[in-house]
Batch of 2 targets.
Target 1
Amino acid sequence: MYLASNYDDAAVVLDKAIAGCRADEVAEIRSPGTTLASWRTQSLARHATGASNGPTEGLNLCVKKVKRCEHGFRRFDNYRLRVLLHTGGVTWPERPSPPRIRTRCSPLR
């Protein structure tokens, strides 16, 4: 269904999958047909909007990995900073340029 080029083709493929699952004799095959039927509108919304929650799920996975590896933080700020470092969301503030040191001119000039 997700490989279909437009909404109508995706709807046909999904409806065939639902009908095939529901017509099967095995209960374990009929169950996904019921699930697909109840989520039909949401599944086809990708073809209508082009939206995907893939980037959100990827960031959630990264946050869970950080939490699992760090064995707990005592301060939330440290946890937040570690998550931002791993996800590339840190924007460091601009450092002020160092003051110019005025030196005396060489007496040999």
Target 2
Amino acid sequence: MKKLTFILAALLLLLAGCQSASPSQTDDASQPGNNAEESGDVYVFNWGEYMDESLNKTFEEATGIKVHYNTYQNNEMLYSTIVGGGSSYDVIIPSDYMISRMIGEELLLPLNFDNIPNFANIDPAHKNPEYDPENLYSVPYMWGTVGIVYDQTRVSDPIDSWNALFDEQYSGQILMFDNPRDAFSIPLKLLGHSFNTTDEAKIREAYDLLVEQKPLVQAYVMDQIFDKMENGEAILAPYYAGDAITMMDANENLAFAIPKEGTNVFVDAFCIPTGAENKTAAEKYIDFMCSHDAGLANVEMIGYSTPLIDVFEGLDDEIKNDGISYPENMDGFEVFTNLPDWVLDLYAELWTDLRK
């Protein structure tokens, strides 16, 4: 599905009235600066491989607002960066449970939706979610599910269960998530427990399974999964459906399965952290990314599922019915919720022990 998309000239005209101050003459995108408001810069922090980055140039040309774009590999890395105060970003794209946590810790600013008129194009099913019930702090960007990416030419049995990731016949050819929330979710679901359990015994039971699995694991990965799976360096890996589509486009031997035990369904959303220095520019950026043309370009580039009504309506039936992007049967699917601090501390302690 990954292909080049040309943004229509109408998009530039639409945004032409949103001119800001002239862009800074410097091009240091490594860290947010101290003069963002004066220069009209906006600092964006997103997941890796999760946007058609040519859109940033389109936004710059339309508004005069310079985009500095950095990436992270998981929600926990994002959280530690924001809490650490070492970087002041204007736009971040955390997942549902992390948004809930950041709202509770007063790390996000309420949005001015007058500056985000394209919010009207968000599917009502994605408005007022549990993680932001009054829809004050977030605008959905993409949603998706988690499953198993696998090389169908190198497996001996149907891949339809999380058990495949614990099968000794694939020793040394299994990849695993390199973050605790996603990694623990797999044995939890395999054991019949909720992703959101606060029962310490159940969490430790899941940990024991991860310990048993560790000798079979080739590597714990996030963005590194693309090279490893596309180049045939591993056989099995749990990952996000949109990225699985990208990998399948690059390697025709790859396939994707949603395990029968159930899986995680998630939403990632645009937010503005409390340290933002250019909130108005951030809201213009969010509105731009929710426009039809930008939304379509992102779906075509990254393969994730869109919450934008007009983008979804314009998709080919092949995409709507592929069983990956928009699964028909979502029995057993579960959303991550924010967990109590003591549970998060337990996860962190166990994860550190596992990764020693």
